[in-house]
Specification:
Blueprint (H helix, E strand, L loop, with lengths): L1 H6 L2 H82 L6
Length: 97
């Protein structure tokens, strides 16, 4: 037992303590980096959701505007067709039928 005590080298323990401290510091740095990355990922996710909501809203607005224009053009076309038919009827010689 005395030989074990005599062979005891405190520099080995100090080296191990230093290595452990270095590993703990590196671990803490990695954890902080991980937290920052998670925050950025969370922000990106929220931004993507907001962008998707804005895009859907814009799409609905465009579709509504387009449908209104289609209906307006359709109504104008029907009016023009009705006037053309009335004009054709008015200019057709009834005796030529």
């Amino acid at each position: 037992m005395l030989s074990v005590i005599e062979e005891f080298d405190s520099s080995k323990i100090e080296a191990l303590e230093h290595q452990m401290k270095t590993q703990q510091e590196r671990y803490m740095e990695l954890m902080q980096t991980n937290v920052k990355l998670q925050d950025k990922a969370s922000d990106a996710f929220v931004l993507a959701k907001e962008t998707a909501a804005i895009a859907k809203g814009s799409q609905r607005e465009v579709e509504a505007s387009l449908n209104a224009m289609r209906n307006e053009v359709r109504a104008e076309l029907e009016t023009v067709n009705a006037k053309m038919k009335a004009l054709q009827t008015a200019t057709t010689n009834p005796l030529g039928r």
